[in-house]
Write a structure and sequence with these properties.
It is built from 8 helices and 13 strands. β4 and β5 form a beta hairpin.
């Protein structure tokens, strides 16, 4: 856990700015491309982000003007809850952004901010007692969702999928299919699909699973829509196919049966509820 603490009134520590990250986010708003998505990942690796927190101890300076050391167990992070029960850490690129999202402590005061990096968030999200599903950058403004799996890739804890050549989807009917989380997370494909989904108001949620059929496997997208439309499925497949070569892609409708047998409460890679 990082030891530096930045309060809203702190003047002794250098301000958190993240100019490069903010520049990349503005570029993404002009239109998503593989280059801009990669630029976002690169900028996040070096970013110092602000997290709103509350403390179980009073931060009063001593006679020498020094603040007391704070134990990790005495820091309480705020969480952003979605309507479907998911939880995310709200994080901010700078102090100005942190003031746009109104949060109050139990005493009615504005929260303090602590500085955290991608590796810090990955460490917290991969802890056994963690219940969060990722982070949201500048909620209420930019709303950039970075899932837990992507943070693992950015921190280096999870290795990315190798780039390989494409082959068609293999369907082997005699072999029953099984489903799980992708063994290797295709970050660029997921980001491209996410950006595509934000342009279609008919799309509610999208999940990504790995479908295994004997020795064969493919990426499976399950799409929840207001009105089922085959063209929506085709559009997502077209976007995803451009980023994977070796592993085929399937796209299908969300159903209650799929929820019970495939999704099983997993976090959606795209959730319209988070699009403010």
């Amino acid at each position: 856990m990082a030891k530096k603490v930045v309060s809203r009134n702190a003047g002794k520590l250098p301000p958190v700015q993240n100019d490069k990250l903010k520049e990349v986010i503005q570029d993404l708003k002009k239109g998503s491309t593989p280059e801009r998505q990669q630029a976002l990942m690169n900028a996040l690796k070096n970013a110092r982000l602000l997290s709103p927190v509350d403390f179980d101890v009073q931060l009063k300076p001593d006679t020498k003007g020094k603040l007391p050391r704070v134990k990790p167990s005495e820091i309480r992070f705020f969480m952003l809850n979605t309507n479907d029960g998911k939880m995310f850490f709200p994080v901010f690129t700078d102090f100005e952004e942190s003031t746009k999202f109104k949060i109050e402590t139990k005493n009615g005061e504005a929260p303090k901010n602590v500085v955290r990096t991608v590796k810090d968030y990955d460490r917290m999200l991969s802890a056994n007692d963690n219940r969060a599903d990722g982070i949201v950058i500048n909620p209420g403004s930019d709303n950039i969702v970075i899932p837990k799996m992507s943070l693992g890739l950015l921190s280096g804890r999870i290795k990315p999928a190798p780039q390989q050549e494409a082959k068609p989807v293999q369907i082997t009917k005699p072999v029953p299919a099984s489903y799980g989380e992708p063994a290797v997370y295709p970050t660029r494909m997921v980001n491209a699909v996410y950006d595509h989904c934000t342009t279609d108001e008919n799309i509610s949620r999208v999940w990504l699973k790995e479908k295994r059929m004997g020795a064969e496997s493919c990426f499976l997208f399950l799409v929840e829509m207001d009105r089922n439309d085959a063209k929506v499925l085709e559009g997502i497949k077209e976007v995803a196919d451009a980023f994977v070569k070796e592993t085929p892609v399937e796209v299908d409708y969300y159903t209650k049966k799929a929820e019970e047998e495939i999704i099983k409460g997993a976090v959606a890679l795209y959730d319209r509820v988070l699009e403010l």
